[in-house]
Amino acid sequence: MSSPLDILTLQPPEPAARPAPPFDVRRIRADFPILGQQVQGQPLVYLDNGATAQKPRAVIDALSHYYTDQNANVHRGVHHLSQIATDAYEAARRKVATFINAASDREIIFVRGTTEGINLIAQTFGREQIGEGDEIIITEMEHHSNIVPWWMLCREKGAKLRVIPMNDRGELCLDTYQTLFTSRTKLVSIIHISNVLGTVNPVREIVQIAHAHGVPVHIDGAQAVPHQRVDVRALGCEFYTFSGHKMFAPTGIGVLYGSETYLDTMPPYQGGGSMIQSVDFDNITYGNLPNKFEAGTPNIAGSIGLGAAIDYLNSIDFDGAAKYEANLLEYAHDVLRGVPDLKMLGTAECKVGVLSFTLSDIHPHDVGTILDQAGVAVRAGHHCAQPVMKHYDIPAATRASLSFYNTREDIDALVSGLHTVRKIFG
Ligand SMILES: *Cc1c(COP(=O)(O)O)cnc(C)c1O
Protein backbone atom coordinates (compact mmCIF):
# COMPACT_ATOMS: atom_id res chain seq x y z
CA MET A 1 0.00 0.00 0.00
CA SER A 2 1.34 3.45 -0.80
CA SER A 3 1.43 6.24 1.73
CA PRO A 4 2.55 9.87 1.42
CA LEU A 5 5.76 8.83 3.17
CA ASP A 6 6.75 6.52 0.32
CA ILE A 7 8.13 9.47 -1.53
CA LEU A 8 10.80 9.81 1.17
CA THR A 9 12.00 6.24 0.83
CA LEU A 10 12.07 5.89 -2.94
CA GLN A 11 15.29 4.25 -4.03
CA PRO A 12 17.38 5.68 -6.85
CA PRO A 13 17.01 3.61 -10.04
CA GLU A 14 19.38 0.66 -10.37
CA PRO A 15 22.61 1.70 -12.09
CA ALA A 16 22.83 0.47 -15.69
CA ALA A 17 24.78 -2.80 -15.76
CA ARG A 18 28.36 -2.44 -16.95
CA PRO A 19 29.40 -4.98 -19.61
CA ALA A 20 30.91 -7.96 -17.80
CA PRO A 21 34.55 -8.89 -18.42
CA PRO A 22 34.97 -12.14 -20.42
CA PHE A 23 34.56 -15.31 -18.37
CA ASP A 24 37.71 -16.30 -16.48
CA VAL A 25 37.36 -19.30 -14.15
CA ARG A 26 40.36 -18.35 -11.93
CA ARG A 27 38.86 -14.95 -11.19
CA ILE A 28 35.38 -16.46 -10.67
CA ARG A 29 36.71 -19.06 -8.19
CA ALA A 30 38.16 -16.27 -6.08
CA ASP A 31 34.59 -14.99 -5.58
CA PHE A 32 33.64 -18.22 -3.72
CA PRO A 33 35.51 -18.37 -0.38
CA ILE A 34 34.60 -22.01 0.37
CA LEU A 35 36.40 -23.25 -2.76
CA GLY A 36 39.73 -22.47 -1.10
CA GLN A 37 39.08 -25.07 1.57
CA GLN A 38 40.93 -28.32 2.17
CA VAL A 39 38.95 -31.52 2.76
CA GLN A 40 40.71 -34.63 4.12
CA GLY A 41 43.97 -32.74 3.62
CA GLN A 42 43.26 -32.20 -0.09
CA PRO A 43 41.90 -29.20 -1.97
CA LEU A 44 38.10 -29.35 -2.06
CA VAL A 45 36.72 -30.59 -5.38
CA TYR A 46 33.04 -29.66 -5.18
CA LEU A 47 30.99 -31.62 -7.70
CA ASP A 48 27.64 -31.65 -5.89
CA ASN A 49 26.21 -28.50 -7.42
CA GLY A 50 22.98 -30.23 -8.40
CA ALA A 51 22.21 -30.59 -4.70
CA THR A 52 23.23 -27.07 -3.76
CA ALA A 53 25.59 -24.47 -5.19
CA GLN A 54 28.27 -22.60 -3.24
CA LYS A 55 27.77 -18.92 -2.42
CA PRO A 56 29.83 -16.02 -3.72
CA ARG A 57 31.21 -13.48 -1.24
CA ALA A 58 28.65 -10.93 -2.56
CA VAL A 59 25.77 -13.09 -1.30
CA ILE A 60 27.40 -13.79 2.06
CA ASP A 61 28.10 -10.07 2.49
CA ALA A 62 24.51 -9.14 1.58
CA LEU A 63 23.22 -11.41 4.37
CA SER A 64 25.69 -10.00 6.84
CA HIS A 65 24.86 -6.42 5.79
CA TYR A 66 21.13 -7.09 6.19
CA TYR A 67 21.51 -8.44 9.72
CA THR A 68 24.15 -5.88 10.71
CA ASP A 69 22.46 -2.75 9.37
CA GLN A 70 18.92 -3.33 8.13
CA ASN A 71 17.10 -5.98 10.15
CA ALA A 72 13.42 -5.28 10.80
CA ASN A 73 10.11 -6.85 9.83
CA VAL A 74 8.61 -5.82 6.50
CA HIS A 75 5.22 -4.47 5.38
CA ARG A 76 3.80 -3.30 8.68
CA GLY A 77 6.37 -0.90 9.98
CA VAL A 78 6.36 2.89 9.88
CA HIS A 79 9.83 3.16 11.37
CA HIS A 80 13.07 3.74 9.52
CA LEU A 81 14.51 0.21 9.58
CA SER A 82 11.20 -1.39 8.61
CA GLN A 83 11.06 0.90 5.58
CA ILE A 84 14.61 -0.06 4.63
CA ALA A 85 13.94 -3.78 5.07
CA THR A 86 10.71 -3.50 3.04
CA ASP A 87 12.50 -1.64 0.25
CA ALA A 88 15.26 -4.27 0.17
CA TYR A 89 12.72 -7.11 0.16
CA GLU A 90 10.69 -5.59 -2.67
CA ALA A 91 13.85 -4.69 -4.60
CA ALA A 92 14.76 -8.38 -4.49
CA ARG A 93 11.35 -9.25 -5.93
CA ARG A 94 11.95 -6.76 -8.79
CA LYS A 95 15.36 -8.33 -9.46
CA VAL A 96 13.76 -11.77 -9.74
CA ALA A 97 11.04 -10.45 -12.06
CA THR A 98 13.66 -8.90 -14.35
CA PHE A 99 15.91 -11.97 -14.14
CA ILE A 100 13.23 -14.29 -15.56
CA ASN A 101 11.51 -11.56 -17.61
CA ALA A 102 8.17 -11.71 -15.79
CA ALA A 103 5.65 -9.07 -16.86
CA SER A 104 5.24 -7.76 -13.30
CA ASP A 105 6.56 -8.01 -9.72
CA ARG A 106 3.11 -9.21 -8.71
CA GLU A 107 3.84 -12.48 -10.53
CA ILE A 108 6.77 -13.29 -8.21
CA ILE A 109 5.81 -15.17 -5.04
CA PHE A 110 8.58 -15.86 -2.53
CA VAL A 111 8.43 -19.41 -1.20
CA ARG A 112 10.86 -21.77 0.57
CA GLY A 113 12.01 -23.38 -2.65
CA THR A 114 10.89 -25.39 -5.64
CA THR A 115 9.17 -27.94 -3.40
CA GLU A 116 7.00 -25.35 -1.68
CA GLY A 117 6.26 -23.62 -4.98
CA ILE A 118 4.89 -26.84 -6.46
CA ASN A 119 2.89 -27.64 -3.32
CA LEU A 120 1.42 -24.14 -3.49
CA ILE A 121 0.18 -24.75 -7.04
CA ALA A 122 -1.20 -28.18 -6.11
CA GLN A 123 -2.98 -26.93 -2.99
CA THR A 124 -4.54 -23.84 -4.60
CA PHE A 125 -4.97 -24.16 -8.36
CA GLY A 126 -4.94 -27.95 -8.10
CA ARG A 127 -7.50 -28.40 -5.34
CA GLU A 128 -9.84 -25.91 -6.97
CA GLN A 129 -9.51 -26.94 -10.62
CA ILE A 130 -8.76 -30.65 -10.57
CA GLY A 131 -11.50 -33.13 -9.74
CA GLU A 132 -12.51 -36.76 -10.09
CA GLY A 133 -11.46 -38.28 -13.40
CA ASP A 134 -9.23 -35.32 -14.34
CA GLU A 135 -5.66 -35.87 -15.49
CA ILE A 136 -2.23 -34.31 -14.92
CA ILE A 137 0.65 -34.95 -17.31
CA ILE A 138 4.16 -35.25 -15.87
CA THR A 139 7.31 -37.01 -17.14
CA GLU A 140 9.24 -40.13 -16.24
CA MET A 141 12.26 -38.01 -15.25
CA GLU A 142 10.61 -35.81 -12.61
CA HIS A 143 12.21 -35.03 -9.27
CA HIS A 144 10.03 -36.39 -6.45
CA SER A 145 8.92 -32.85 -5.68
CA ASN A 146 7.12 -32.75 -9.03
CA ILE A 147 5.52 -36.16 -8.47
CA VAL A 148 4.46 -36.46 -4.84
CA PRO A 149 2.35 -33.25 -4.53
CA TRP A 150 0.40 -34.27 -7.68
CA TRP A 151 0.08 -37.86 -6.52
CA MET A 152 -1.34 -36.63 -3.19
CA LEU A 153 -3.78 -34.38 -5.03
CA CYS A 154 -4.83 -37.25 -7.29
CA ARG A 155 -5.42 -39.46 -4.26
CA GLU A 156 -7.55 -36.80 -2.63
CA LYS A 157 -9.60 -36.01 -5.74
CA GLY A 158 -9.72 -39.25 -7.66
CA ALA A 159 -7.65 -37.76 -10.48
CA LYS A 160 -4.93 -39.52 -12.51
CA LEU A 161 -1.27 -38.98 -13.42
CA ARG A 162 -0.25 -39.56 -17.06
CA VAL A 163 3.49 -39.95 -17.63
CA ILE A 164 5.55 -38.93 -20.68
CA PRO A 165 8.13 -41.72 -21.11
CA MET A 166 11.79 -41.20 -21.99
CA ASN A 167 14.25 -43.19 -24.07
CA ASP A 168 17.50 -44.70 -22.73
CA ARG A 169 19.49 -41.58 -23.60
CA GLY A 170 17.19 -39.66 -21.26
CA GLU A 171 15.14 -37.80 -23.85
CA LEU A 172 11.37 -37.39 -23.64
CA CYS A 173 9.20 -39.09 -26.25
CA LEU A 174 7.23 -36.15 -27.60
CA ASP A 175 5.16 -38.36 -29.94
CA THR A 176 3.75 -40.19 -26.94
CA TYR A 177 3.26 -36.87 -25.15
CA GLN A 178 0.87 -35.73 -27.90
CA THR A 179 -1.26 -38.82 -27.39
CA LEU A 180 -1.66 -38.34 -23.62
CA PHE A 181 -4.09 -35.43 -23.90
CA THR A 182 -7.77 -36.08 -23.30
CA SER A 183 -10.71 -33.80 -22.55
CA ARG A 184 -9.84 -34.38 -18.86
CA THR A 185 -6.25 -33.05 -19.00
CA LYS A 186 -6.03 -30.14 -16.57
CA LEU A 187 -2.30 -29.47 -16.20
CA VAL A 188 1.09 -30.34 -17.66
CA SER A 189 3.88 -30.21 -15.05
CA ILE A 190 7.39 -30.89 -16.34
CA ILE A 191 11.00 -30.65 -15.36
CA HIS A 192 13.05 -28.13 -17.38
CA ILE A 193 16.45 -29.76 -16.86
CA SER A 194 16.80 -33.22 -15.30
CA ASN A 195 18.75 -33.30 -12.03
CA VAL A 196 19.91 -36.86 -12.78
CA LEU A 197 20.44 -36.89 -16.55
CA GLY A 198 21.18 -33.26 -17.30
CA THR A 199 18.70 -33.40 -20.19
CA VAL A 200 17.46 -30.00 -21.29
CA ASN A 201 13.87 -30.65 -22.25
CA PRO A 202 12.26 -28.83 -25.20
CA VAL A 203 9.98 -26.95 -22.83
CA ARG A 204 8.95 -24.28 -25.34
CA GLU A 205 7.60 -26.95 -27.66
CA ILE A 206 5.98 -28.83 -24.76
CA VAL A 207 4.19 -25.63 -23.71
CA GLN A 208 2.99 -24.98 -27.28
CA ILE A 209 1.54 -28.47 -27.56
CA ALA A 210 -0.22 -28.12 -24.20
CA HIS A 211 -1.64 -24.74 -25.18
CA ALA A 212 -2.97 -26.20 -28.43
CA HIS A 213 -5.05 -28.40 -26.12
CA GLY A 214 -5.97 -25.45 -23.91
CA VAL A 215 -3.96 -26.84 -20.96
CA PRO A 216 -1.74 -24.69 -18.68
CA VAL A 217 1.86 -25.67 -17.90
CA HIS A 218 4.08 -25.62 -14.83
CA ILE A 219 7.85 -25.95 -15.31
CA ASP A 220 10.18 -27.11 -12.53
CA GLY A 221 13.20 -24.88 -13.18
CA ALA A 222 15.35 -25.87 -10.18
CA GLN A 223 18.21 -27.11 -12.40
CA ALA A 224 17.72 -24.61 -15.21
CA VAL A 225 18.27 -21.21 -13.58
CA PRO A 226 21.86 -21.97 -12.43
CA HIS A 227 22.90 -23.02 -15.96
CA GLN A 228 21.14 -20.83 -18.48
CA ARG A 229 19.03 -17.74 -18.96
CA VAL A 230 15.34 -18.35 -18.47
CA ASP A 231 12.65 -16.14 -19.99
CA VAL A 232 9.21 -17.14 -18.71
CA ARG A 233 7.40 -15.02 -21.26
CA ALA A 234 9.33 -16.55 -24.16
CA LEU A 235 8.55 -20.01 -22.75
CA GLY A 236 4.90 -19.01 -22.40
CA CYS A 237 4.35 -21.19 -19.30
CA GLU A 238 1.71 -20.32 -16.70
CA PHE A 239 3.90 -21.36 -13.74
CA TYR A 240 7.67 -21.65 -13.18
CA THR A 241 9.35 -22.66 -9.91
CA PHE A 242 12.96 -22.62 -8.69
CA SER A 243 15.14 -22.65 -5.55
CA GLY A 244 17.56 -19.94 -4.52
CA HIS A 245 20.15 -22.31 -3.06
CA LYS A 246 20.89 -24.03 -6.38
CA MET A 247 21.58 -20.66 -8.01
CA PHE A 248 24.18 -19.41 -5.50
CA ALA A 249 21.65 -17.86 -3.08
CA PRO A 250 20.83 -18.98 0.49
CA THR A 251 18.67 -21.98 1.43
CA GLY A 252 15.07 -21.41 2.47
CA ILE A 253 14.19 -19.01 -0.34
CA GLY A 254 12.72 -19.82 -3.71
CA VAL A 255 10.33 -18.49 -6.29
CA LEU A 256 6.98 -19.34 -7.71
CA TYR A 257 6.34 -17.41 -10.89
CA GLY A 258 2.70 -17.43 -11.95
CA SER A 259 1.04 -15.46 -14.70
CA GLU A 260 -1.09 -12.77 -13.12
CA THR A 261 -4.29 -14.07 -14.74
CA TYR A 262 -3.83 -17.40 -12.97
CA LEU A 263 -2.54 -16.15 -9.63
CA ASP A 264 -5.36 -13.61 -9.39
CA THR A 265 -8.11 -16.19 -9.55
CA MET A 266 -6.39 -18.80 -7.36
CA PRO A 267 -7.36 -19.10 -3.68
CA PRO A 268 -4.67 -18.31 -1.07
CA TYR A 269 -2.26 -21.02 0.09
CA GLN A 270 -1.72 -20.36 3.80
CA GLY A 271 -3.74 -18.03 6.02
CA GLY A 272 -2.19 -15.54 8.41
CA GLY A 273 -0.79 -12.06 8.69
CA SER A 274 0.07 -9.95 5.64
CA MET A 275 -2.12 -11.90 3.22
CA ILE A 276 -5.38 -10.15 4.11
CA GLN A 277 -7.06 -6.83 3.46
CA SER A 278 -9.49 -7.03 6.38
CA VAL A 279 -10.47 -9.55 9.01
CA ASP A 280 -13.50 -9.82 11.20
CA PHE A 281 -15.09 -13.00 12.49
CA ASP A 282 -17.81 -13.00 9.84
CA ASN A 283 -15.85 -11.95 6.82
CA ILE A 284 -12.27 -11.90 5.57
CA THR A 285 -11.04 -10.27 2.39
CA TYR A 286 -7.72 -11.39 0.99
CA GLY A 287 -4.90 -9.11 -0.02
CA ASN A 288 -3.67 -8.40 -3.53
CA LEU A 289 -0.79 -10.09 -5.34
CA PRO A 290 1.79 -11.02 -4.32
CA ASN A 291 0.81 -10.63 -0.62
CA LYS A 292 -2.15 -12.99 -0.96
CA PHE A 293 0.34 -15.89 -1.21
CA GLU A 294 2.84 -14.72 1.40
CA ALA A 295 1.27 -15.31 4.81
CA GLY A 296 3.37 -14.48 7.86
CA THR A 297 6.85 -13.03 8.12
CA PRO A 298 8.72 -13.97 4.96
CA ASN A 299 12.36 -14.99 4.58
CA ILE A 300 13.56 -11.39 4.28
CA ALA A 301 17.27 -12.15 4.51
CA GLY A 302 16.93 -15.01 2.05
CA SER A 303 15.19 -12.87 -0.53
CA ILE A 304 17.87 -10.20 -0.19
CA GLY A 305 20.49 -12.92 -0.63
CA LEU A 306 18.68 -14.13 -3.74
CA GLY A 307 18.69 -10.57 -5.09
CA ALA A 308 22.44 -10.44 -4.43
CA ALA A 309 22.94 -13.75 -6.29
CA ILE A 310 21.07 -12.31 -9.29
CA ASP A 311 23.22 -9.16 -9.13
CA TYR A 312 26.26 -11.44 -9.07
CA LEU A 313 25.12 -13.41 -12.12
CA ASN A 314 24.43 -10.13 -13.91
CA SER A 315 27.92 -8.91 -13.04
CA ILE A 316 29.70 -11.87 -14.63
CA ASP A 317 29.64 -13.03 -18.24
CA PHE A 318 26.80 -15.52 -17.65
CA ASP A 319 26.61 -16.56 -21.31
CA GLY A 320 30.38 -17.05 -21.30
CA ALA A 321 29.96 -19.11 -18.12
CA ALA A 322 27.39 -21.34 -19.85
CA LYS A 323 29.77 -21.85 -22.79
CA TYR A 324 32.63 -22.65 -20.42
CA GLU A 325 30.42 -25.17 -18.61
CA ALA A 326 29.40 -26.83 -21.90
CA ASN A 327 33.07 -27.18 -22.76
CA LEU A 328 33.85 -28.67 -19.36
CA LEU A 329 31.00 -31.14 -19.76
CA GLU A 330 32.42 -32.30 -23.07
CA TYR A 331 35.82 -32.79 -21.44
CA ALA A 332 34.23 -34.72 -18.55
CA HIS A 333 32.34 -37.01 -20.93
CA ASP A 334 35.56 -37.70 -22.85
CA VAL A 335 37.72 -38.59 -19.86
CA LEU A 336 35.00 -40.53 -18.01
CA ARG A 337 34.58 -42.66 -21.13
CA GLY A 338 38.15 -43.83 -20.44
CA VAL A 339 37.19 -45.32 -17.05
CA PRO A 340 36.56 -49.07 -17.54
CA ASP A 341 33.09 -50.34 -16.53
CA LEU A 342 31.69 -46.84 -16.15
CA LYS A 343 28.19 -46.50 -17.57
CA MET A 344 26.86 -42.98 -18.13
CA LEU A 345 23.12 -42.58 -17.56
CA GLY A 346 22.18 -39.40 -19.40
CA THR A 347 23.48 -38.97 -22.94
CA ALA A 348 20.86 -36.64 -24.39
CA GLU A 349 21.73 -34.51 -27.41
CA CYS A 350 20.95 -31.40 -25.40
CA LYS A 351 22.28 -31.57 -21.84
CA VAL A 352 24.05 -29.58 -19.14
CA GLY A 353 26.79 -30.58 -16.71
CA VAL A 354 25.16 -33.39 -14.76
CA LEU A 355 27.04 -36.70 -14.92
CA SER A 356 25.30 -39.69 -13.37
CA PHE A 357 26.90 -43.06 -13.74
CA THR A 358 27.36 -46.55 -12.38
CA LEU A 359 30.78 -48.18 -11.97
CA SER A 360 30.45 -51.94 -12.58
CA ASP A 361 28.39 -53.17 -9.61
CA ILE A 362 30.17 -51.14 -6.94
CA HIS A 363 27.61 -49.46 -4.71
CA PRO A 364 27.44 -45.68 -5.31
CA HIS A 365 27.76 -45.06 -1.55
CA ASP A 366 31.14 -46.82 -1.63
CA VAL A 367 32.15 -44.81 -4.69
CA GLY A 368 31.12 -41.57 -2.96
CA THR A 369 32.89 -42.45 0.28
CA ILE A 370 36.17 -43.27 -1.42
CA LEU A 371 35.99 -40.14 -3.56
CA ASP A 372 35.46 -38.14 -0.37
CA GLN A 373 38.83 -39.44 0.90
CA ALA A 374 40.33 -37.63 -2.07
CA GLY A 375 38.43 -34.42 -1.28
CA VAL A 376 35.96 -35.00 -4.12
CA ALA A 377 32.31 -34.26 -3.21
CA VAL A 378 29.73 -36.11 -5.30
CA ARG A 379 26.25 -37.42 -4.56
CA ALA A 380 25.26 -41.08 -4.33
CA GLY A 381 21.72 -42.42 -4.21
CA HIS A 382 18.46 -42.20 -6.12
CA HIS A 383 18.67 -38.39 -6.44
CA CYS A 384 15.00 -37.95 -5.52
CA ALA A 385 14.06 -39.48 -8.86
CA GLN A 386 13.31 -43.15 -8.23
CA PRO A 387 11.37 -43.56 -11.51
CA VAL A 388 14.61 -42.68 -13.36
CA MET A 389 16.49 -45.35 -11.38
CA LYS A 390 13.71 -47.80 -12.24
CA HIS A 391 14.04 -46.94 -15.93
CA TYR A 392 17.67 -48.07 -15.86
CA ASP A 393 16.88 -50.90 -13.46
CA ILE A 394 19.35 -49.75 -10.80
CA PRO A 395 18.78 -48.81 -7.14
CA ALA A 396 21.16 -45.87 -7.17
CA ALA A 397 23.83 -43.99 -9.10
CA THR A 398 26.79 -41.69 -8.47
CA ARG A 399 26.34 -38.11 -9.68
CA ALA A 400 28.91 -35.42 -10.34
CA SER A 401 27.22 -32.11 -11.13
CA LEU A 402 29.11 -29.12 -12.47
CA SER A 403 29.02 -25.40 -11.98
CA PHE A 404 30.90 -22.69 -13.86
CA TYR A 405 33.49 -22.52 -11.06
CA ASN A 406 34.62 -26.10 -11.67
CA THR A 407 37.79 -26.83 -13.63
CA ARG A 408 39.41 -29.57 -15.70
CA GLU A 409 41.58 -30.30 -12.64
CA ASP A 410 38.35 -31.05 -10.71
CA ILE A 411 37.32 -33.55 -13.39
CA ASP A 412 40.82 -35.09 -13.37
CA ALA A 413 40.59 -35.51 -9.57
CA LEU A 414 37.24 -37.27 -10.03
CA VAL A 415 38.66 -39.63 -12.64
CA SER A 416 41.75 -40.40 -10.57
CA GLY A 417 39.46 -41.11 -7.57
CA LEU A 418 37.39 -43.49 -9.71
CA HIS A 419 40.53 -45.41 -10.66
CA THR A 420 41.29 -45.76 -6.93
CA VAL A 421 37.75 -47.06 -6.35
CA ARG A 422 38.28 -49.69 -9.05
CA LYS A 423 41.61 -50.72 -7.55
CA ILE A 424 40.05 -51.14 -4.09
CA PHE A 425 37.10 -53.14 -5.40
CA GLY A 426 39.17 -54.71 -8.19
C1 LIG B 1 16.47 -29.78 -6.11
C2 LIG B 1 15.33 -29.96 -7.02
C3 LIG B 1 14.01 -29.79 -6.58
C4 LIG B 1 13.66 -29.50 -5.16
O1 LIG B 1 14.20 -28.29 -4.75
P1 LIG B 1 14.19 -27.88 -3.20
O2 LIG B 1 15.14 -26.75 -3.14
O3 LIG B 1 14.65 -29.09 -2.43
O4 LIG B 1 12.79 -27.50 -2.87
C5 LIG B 1 13.00 -29.94 -7.50
N1 LIG B 1 13.27 -30.23 -8.78
C6 LIG B 1 14.52 -30.39 -9.24
C7 LIG B 1 14.75 -30.69 -10.67
C8 LIG B 1 15.58 -30.27 -8.37
O5 LIG B 1 16.83 -30.45 -8.82
> Rg, please?
22 Å
Helix content: 25-40%
Using the alpha-carbon principal axes, give the shape. globular
Give the second-level CATH assignment, the architecture of the largest domain.
3-Layer(aba) Sandwich
Structural class: alpha/beta
Give the overall pLDDT as a whole number.
95
Number of strands: 17
Q: How many alpha or pi helices?
A: 15
List ligands, each type once: pyridoxal-5'-phosphate
Write out the strand line-up for the largest beta sheet, numbering strands in chain order: 4-10-9-8-7-5-6
Report the oligomer.
Answer: single chain
CATH superfamily of the largest domain: Type I PLP-dependent aspartate aminotransferase-like (Major domain)
Strand content of the residues, in percent?
15-25%
Number of domain modules: 2
End-to-end gap? 68 Å
Give a short account of the largest sheet: 7 strands, mixed
According to CATH, what is the class of the largest domain?
Alpha Beta
Low-confidence stretches: 1-13
CATH third-tier fold name of the largest domain: Aspartate Aminotransferase, domain 2
